[in-house]
Design brief:
The complex is a heterodimer of chains A (517) and B (328). Chain A is of the alpha+beta class and 517 residues long. Chain A has helices at 2-14, 32-42, 44-66, 106-118, 168-179, 226-237, 298-334, 336-351, 354-368, 372-402, 406-413, 418-454, 466-470, 476-481, 483-511; strands at 76-90, 95-98, 122-125, 128-136, 139-144, 147-153, 156-159, 184-187, 190-194, 199-202, 205-211, 213-217, 242-246, 252-260, 265-277. Chain B is built from 13 helices and no strands. The chains are: A alpha+beta (517), B mainly alpha (328).
Chain lengths: 517, 328
């Protein structure tokens, strides 16, 4: 504008014409709208508010389109959990097996232990004489006379998982071979091989194993592979507390052994990956604001929440505006009893406490299990119905003074119809005040909605709203440990409301030149 | 004047009549979940009557079996005779509960109002006298931030900083855990200590509007002719502002503050609920979510009365303080 003016002035100067003092070109002409805009943009706070609002709108409405996630999309994660897989005990006591058809009872065992501990080769018990034959390390055969009645051993012979029970002769032959470090034995006419790990092989197939360690699976029906057992045994013998083992399925797990001194049992913990909801994940590249307690992306929910909050604000203010302008305009224009009646209605609505009413309605909708969309609509409708009185009062007050002015007499003289007079000639003159009131009102409606949602009475899961996001702080742990869940939502709320208030305040000053000194 | 007051009072009664009617209608429309729950509890007791009989008995007891209109008039009659019924949630007469909890709400409201006045008026005057200065921008922005702060968010922030991280206050509640062991002076300080955060919340959240109001009024006064006259007389700027302008700024302020006096009794619903202060706001919140119709009815009627009273007081004060106002 001023550039153009300057150019024209320069042109005039070049032409050698002197500009008259009252030359039109000397005067900068601005329309009332341009004047308001100029005053508005001179106010730094108002411009800041405009930027804040633009940012929040982009964030909510464009951000929701750009972001790849959905508002109720649940994310999962692999979680490492240590679970007890097997327990292992090192056997350092004698175990006994009776030969087929023989008795090797408790008192006899006690006698054996006594003799073994004192290094005797024989003992007497109840008139019979018994003989100990050391067949290998910690492995004895016990004879009554010449009859073999049983064996005592510390290395335990186990059948392979799911395999057949091993017979006494078989056990004895295997133990004898094992304790003497041999790699083959025969029992009942069958030849068996014995490998270094103590596995008993029949034609290359494992039918059992011998070990000082007793390894039991924590859950029934879990077969423990022999190489796992060997690895465990090796780890335990070397005093390692951790080892890794690659199972038959090719998955490598980390195992951790914990020794319980009082029970002398090693608990072997297996780290397993579980597929769980990714709850309360800290901010990362994939989730810039982390995830919430349901494993949903916070940033996405924040954007969709902004949509709901802003939308509720606009719809409510629109409802207020429609009712308020119509009733206020009619009331102000007609005056007399119409005015009286409408203003009493306004008084009544003004007196209804809105917050308690909304709380009761919210609680009622809870117990009636109203679905989410209906709930949102009801919320907007009721907030709008409760909010119009202030707008009606404003419009009426302005129109009361405007209708006495000359232009209204002119409008009447021209024969313009009453609705047209009200809505085309009076209301436009109230628009500046209406814009200011509505802008500021938007902020308070958004706060109201957020408060209700915070109390759990407004917008409900799975819809997000800034208020309902913050309501996660009802869990004290979220409040203290997971700032990224609720602080961003509060900041968004603050920025949006502050933006509306800054802009509203700036507009008020811009529309009202009297406020400027 | 007295004619005006009487007229206003009559209109107020009429409005109150309509408001109670609307409130009663809304409460009657609610699903009577409280009665059903209560009946279920009672019916579960050994050797008790069946559920349906309990529902019928409770409905009769609470006047819910009556048709809508007679029910309203019975309720209205009770209200007029000062009989507000028994609270279902608290199982005591509504009035008893009200008398028990109103002092703490009033104290909180009064302290926060005083603090608001002490903070808002000087800052508003400073902002107006130095319009468009840095101080003005700071104060205006601060006031708007206060208005824009959602109470629940600000309260939670305060809790996080002062109660959780610094540990200066308890997170919520009105008394400490060893309250019963303290002497009466100690108990007083204990309660005072627990009211600090709620009062800070109330003051910060509501000081902004008063500040802006003061600023706007002061600006209007400073632009008026008599201030120009005072300056033209050669009075010092101090005298102009604090003697001539400030007194005139007080006129609308008095009406606003006077009008907000009844509001001291209304309680701070959100703040009290967040800090678990057993004031009228928190107690009502619990009653309302529990479907306690007598208490909710009483509370909402009470709030409506307070609003009407506030309007009346501010209108009267307006006429009293400003001699230019003529009341027809």
């Amino acid at each position: 504008m001023s550039d153009k003016l300057d150019a024209r002035r320069d042109q005039a100067a070049r032409d050698g014409q002197a500009m008259a003092l009252d030359d039109e070109r000397r005067v900068k002409v601005l329309s009332p709208g341009a004047l308001v805009a100029k005053r508005f943009f001179r106010n730094r706070l108002a411009v800041l508010g405009l930027i804040m609002l633009a940012a929040m709108f982009l964030f909510s409405f464009v951000g929701g389109l750009v972001i790849p996630y959905g508002q109720a999309e649940v994310f999962y994660t692999y979680n490492l959990q240590s679970q007890e897989y097997v327990s292992a005990t090192q056997n350092d006591e004698f175990r006994y097996a009776a030969a087929d058809g023989q008795e090797f009872g408790g008192s006899l065992r006690a006698q054996f232990l006594l003799a073994q501990a004192t290094g005797q080769e024989s003992f007497e018990y109840r008139g019979s004489s018994y003989r100990l034959v050391e067949e290998g390390a910690d492995f004895y055969s016990v004879y009554q006379g010449e009859t073999l009645i049983g064996i005592a051993f510390q290395d335990v012979v186990n059948a392979a998982p799911g395999g057949q029970e091993l017979s006494f002769t078989m056990q004895r032959a295997a133990l004898r071979a094992y304790t003497n470090g041999e790699d083959a034995f025969t029992a009942d006419g069958v030849a068996y091989a014995l490998d270094e790990g103590g596995n008993i092989l029949l034609d290359g197939a494992e039918i059992g194993y011998i070990s000082r360690f007793v390894v039991q699976a924590r859950e029934n029906g879990v077969a423990i592979p022999s190489d796992f057992r060997e690895q465990l045994q090796e780890a335990l013998e070397n005093g390692l507390t951790q080892f890794t083992y690659t199972g038959a399925d090719g998955v490598e797990h980390l195992y951790e052994t914990q020794y319980n001194a009082s029970t002398q049992v090693w608990a072997v913990m297996q780290e397993t990956q579980t597929y769980v909801y990714d709850t309360y994940a800290s901010p990362s590249l994939a989730h810039p604001l982390g995830t919430d307690g349901n494993g949903m992306d916070m940033l996405t929910r924040l954007m969709y929440g902004g949509r709901v909050s802003l939308l509720v604000g606009f719809v409510v203010v629109l409802i207020e505006l429609v009712i308020g302008v119509i009733l206020g305009g009619v009331s102000g224009y007609f005056g007399k009893w119409v005015d009286n009646v409408i203003m009493r209605v306004v008084d009544v609505f003004y007196c209804i406490p809105s917050m308690p009413l909304m709380i009761i309605l919210g609680a009622a909708m809870d117990s009636m299990q109203v679905d989410n969309t209906t709930r949102l609509l009801a919320l907007m409708l009721v907030l709008g119905l409760l909010g119009w009185p202030s707008i009606a009062r404003l419009v009426r007050g302005q129109i009361l003074s405007l209708r006495e002015q000359e232009f209204m007499t002119a409008a009447e003289a021209c024969g313009i119809s009453v609705p047209r007079r009200i809505f085309r000639h009076l209301i436009p003159n109230v628009i500046p005040q209406l814009i200011v009131t509505c802008t500021m009102g938007l902020g308070s409606v958004i706060i109201m909605e957020a408060t209700l949602s915070f109390l759990g009475l407004g917008v409900k899961f799975p819809y997000a709203s800034w208020g309902s996001i913050i309501s996660a702080v009802n869990d004290a742990h979220v409040m203290t440990s997971y700032w990224f869940i609720w602080i961003p939502a509060g900041v968004c709320l603050l920025i949006a409301v502050l933006g509306f208030n800054f802009v509203g305040d700036g507009l008020r000053d811009a529309f009202d030149p009297k406020m400027k000194r | 004047m007295s004619k005006f007051i009487i007229k206003r009072l009559l209109i107020s009664v009429l409005i109150l009549f309509c408001v109670t009617f609307i409130i009663y209608a809304l409460l009657r429309c609610l699903p009577s979940s409280f009665v059903e729950q209560r009946a279920m509890q009672l019916a579960a007791a050994p050797g008790s009557k069946p559920y349906e009989e309990w529902v019928a008995q409770l409905n009769a007891q609470y006047g819910l079996d009556m048709p809508f209109l007679p029910g309203y008039f019975v309720q209205l009659g009770n209200l007029l005779t000062g009989n507000f019924g028994d609270s279902w949630r608290w199982t005591v007469p509504v009035m008893d509960k009200f008398v028990e909890v109103i002092p703490i709400s009033f104290i909180m409201g009064a302290i926060s109002l005083i603090l608001q006045l002490v903070i808002a008026i000087p800052l508003g005057v400073i902002a107006a006298t130095r319009q468009y200065s840095k101080a003005d921008y700071a104060i205006t922005a601060g006031a708007l931030v206060g208005i824009s702060l959602p109470t629940f968010f600000f309260a939670t922030l305060l809790k996080l900083v002062f109660a959780v991280q610094l540990g200066w206050f308890d997170v919520s509640g009105m008394v400490g855990r060893n309250h019963a062991l303290l002497d009466s002076w100690g108990q007083f300080w204990d309660i005072a200590h627990h009211l600090v955060l709620p009062i800070i919340t109330l003051v910060i959240v509501s000081v902004g509007s008063l500040m802006r109001y003061t600023r706007a009024n002061m600006l209007e006064v400073l632009n008026s002719d008599y201030i120009r006259t005072a300056r033209a007389k050669g009075l010092s700027e101090r005298r102009v502002i604090y003697h001539h302008a400030f007194r005139n700024t007080l006129i609308p302020l008095v009406t606003i503050v006077g009008g907000s006096l009844p509001g001291l009794f209304s309680g701070a619903l959100i703040t009290e609920t967040l800090f678990a202060i057993n004031g009228i706001g928190y107690i009502s919140f619990q009653s309302m979510t529990a479907g306690d119709i007598p208490f909710s009815m009483f509370y909402m009627t009470f709030l409506a009365v307070l609003t009407l009273l506030g309007n009346l007081i501010s209108d009267i004060l307006y006429a009293v303080v400003d001699p230019r106002v003529r009341i027809a």
